[in-house]
Amino acid sequence: MRKAVIIKHAVLFLFFLLLSTQALPTPWAIEEMVGKPAPYFSLKGVDGREYSLTDFAGEVILLNFWASWCPPCRKELPVLEKIEGDYNGKGFRVVTISTDSDRSTLDAFLKKYPVKLIILHDSEMRIWRKYKVFSLPTSFLINRRGIIVDRFFGGHDRAVDELRRRIEEALE
To answer: CA 76, CA 64: separation in Å to the nearest integer?
Structure first.
């Protein structure tokens, strides 16, 4: 009897372990999104305004997922601000989505480090799941037709030149 209970628990454990790993996004899942329409989103910005993907129709968008507790994300924000400024008036926008679970943590961060980008808050990580994000920071380059043309992981300095090249291609 005891042996049967142990086997039953082991089988259940393995089943739930397998099930939980199937729900996790992977780099391959994100790769599959390139070339496809960007998933729709609608979120409230820290400015109180509701934003959706359709608000940016006809523009090239860099959709960036980040969190205030993520050191590479914090390092990347000023770089993204500069990139947006460099393409000002050319139909390019950076839209950031904070995945901080607590709005007060996000607000405290922004008070200490003001950011001039559009910042949306996705505490429930609904949009994170739609975009199959698995690490922070992660960015998606979306062309004027709403198609994901590239994705970028991590706050690596070496990716900035490639990002700029891809933005310029998308703006053509």
So the answer is: 10
